[in-house]
Every structure is written in structure tokens, then in C-alpha cells.
Design a protein that fits this description.
With about 150 residues, this protein is α/β, with parallel strands linked by helices. The chain is built from five helices and five strands; from the N terminus they run H-H-E-H-E-H-E-H-E-E.
Length: about 150
């Protein structure tokens, strides 16, 4: 059964065993590490959870296009029925126009992920200071009175 191992010289067997152990242990260690501390790149689930508990009745939720796919995937798992959702464009200029069109809508929550912070935050400052804001890894939510 182990006839192939007899071909290794005496020093070759420990080396081969060490390489085999390294090849087996390295991915296992990485898997366990990621189970204990999952990788998070741009995460909107904590924000959606927050909104499901804090959102006001009939508030508008503007979802920037970069956050759209994640929002559409995860939002059914959260109670967001009390929001009027406006799915925005991924194009930066279109998104700015959409935000401007929301003026006069009262309380508007703005959700961003996959976005250029400086570009949008400069424009949002023109709309006013957020009444409330939270961040998650790679995502941002702000409440504005427009």
C-alpha cells in the first residue's frame, strides 16, 4: 500500500511529510480563522437591521445604485415596509440629480455602499447636516430633513 513511499530516500520522507502537512494545515487554518472573524468588505446588513428598528413611518429611503444589488438581495429579510424606497442610479451625476429631486420629501434616509465618499459627501453637505448617521464596513446611512 505504501510502496511508493519506499522510493524516497530517508531524508526525503520527512521532507515530503512536512510539505504534505503544510499543504493540509494552511487552508484549514485559513478557513477556521475566517469562520471566527469573517471577511467583511462592504456590508449593509447592519444598516438594514438598524433601519428595520428605527425607521419612521413613510420616510423615504434613497438607495444609491452601488448599494442596489445588495439592498435588493438582503432587504426581504428585514422589515422595511414603512419606507418609500427610491432605488437610485449608479451614475454619479444621475445620483446627484436624484438626491436633488428628493428635496421637499421630509425625512430622507440615504444609503450608500460602493461609492466615492468625497464626491457624495460634498454634495450632501449642500443639502444640510445629517440628523443622524451610522456607518458599517464600507457602507453609510444618513438621515436628512429635505
Amino acid at each position: 500500500m505504501f510502496d511508493g513511499l519506499k522510493r524516497f530516500p530517508r531524508m526525503g520522507f520527512p521532507v515530503a511529510l512536512g510539505i504534505l502537512a503544510w499543504v493540509a494545515v494552511t487552508p484549514a487554518y485559513s478557513a477556521v480563522r475566517h469562520l471566527r472573524h469573517p471577511r467583511v468588505v462592504e456590508e449593509i446588513k447592519p444598516i438594514l437591521s438598524y433601519l428595520s428598528h428605527k425607521g419612521g413611518t413613510n420616510h423615504v429611503l434613497y438607495v444609491y445604485g452601488g448599494a442596489g444589488p445588495s439592498f435588493l438581495y438582503y432587504s426581504p429579510s428585514y422589515r422595511l415596509d414603512n419606507f418609500r424606497v427610491a432605488l437610485g442610479s449608479y451614475n454619479k451625476q444621475d445620483a446627484l440629480n436624484e438626491l436633488n429631486q428628493l428635496r421637499g420629501s421630509g425625512h430622507v434616509w440615504v444609503l450608500f455602499s460602493h461609492f466615492d465618499k468625497s464626491f457624495f459627501f460634498d454634495h450632501l453637505k449642500e443639502l444640510g447636516e445629517p440628523l443622524h448617521q451610522i456607518t458599517a464596513e464600507g457602507a453609510w446611512l444618513g438621515l436628512y430633513d429635505l
